[in-house]
Amino acid sequence: MTADDAYEGLMAGTARSRGPDAADLHAVASILALALSEAASPGDLPAHCGLEAQALAELLGSLFPAAPPEFRSGRSSAPRSVEEDSVRSLLLAHSSSTPLARPLAAMIARRAMEPDHLWQDLGLRNRKELSALLTRHFGQLAAKNTANMKWKRFFYRLICEDEGFVLCAVPVCTDCADFDMCFGEESGEARLARAGRAAPSGQPPAQVLKMR
């Protein structure tokens, strides 16, 4: 199943009558669809999305009760790294206490271990979607990023400060030779669209993720 097919399969059976926000449905579906596309088998989904099998089943039951069976065969997730635990703890410490805050903290922390911009690692379409997601569910944390720093860099900066470390060698960001690493443009292709086109050999490429 391609990432695009996985996303469409989730969104086709959303529990809209239960009141989840459309933007949240899109965000969670994007994360799970991209994670499933990266898994060697559907059973490896928890290891790629950051949720234990039980937590994943509860999330699917709440938001996507008609989810394709590929999403429901997950085993236990892989052991978490220190970095993943630190990002998860940071998010939970600034949670807005929304119903999705806890599972989102786990998923965002796991996906933050991937190599691209965080919005790409989550399968979102752009940084704006990520910023809005963080504002909804981790409002205190989002409000602290007044300089619009890249989210991964911002997370690690706060984590280092909490641990008593100094991340930067210069007191003012504008004096730093690596300014663009923290504040540069976060452009690029959405990974969900990229994964959707990377169909297995013998299958036609999937269409780019539909804009919703």
* Estimated share of beta-strand residues: under 5%
- Spell the H/E element sequence: HHHHHHHHHHHH
- Poorly predicted ranges (pLDDT <50, ≥5 residues)? 199-212
The total strand number stands at 0
By helix and strand content, what is the structural category?
mainly alpha
- Round the Cα radius of gyration to an integer and report it: 17 Å
Overall geometry comes to: globular
Question: Percent of residues in helical segments?
Answer: 40-55%
If you average the pLDDT, what whole number results? 81
Distance between the first and last residues' Cα: 20 Å
Biggest sheet: strands, sense, closure? Answer: none
Number of helices: 12
Structural description of this entry:
The longest helix is centred in the N-terminal third of the chain and has 17 residues, at 22-38. The protein has helices at residues 3-11, 22-38, 45-49, 53-63, 82-93, 101-111, 118-121, 127-137, 139-144, 151-162, 179-183, 191-197. The protein has 212 residues and is mainly alpha-helical. 52% of the residues lie in helices and 0% in strands.
Helix-strand layout with pairing:
Blueprint: H1 3-11, H2 22-38, H3 45-49, H4 53-63, H5 82-93, H6 101-111, H7 118-121, H8 127-137, H9 139-144, H10 151-162, H11 179-183, H12 191-197
Helix pairs in contact: 1-2, 2-12, 5-6
What would you say about this model in short?
With 212 residues, the protein is mostly helical.
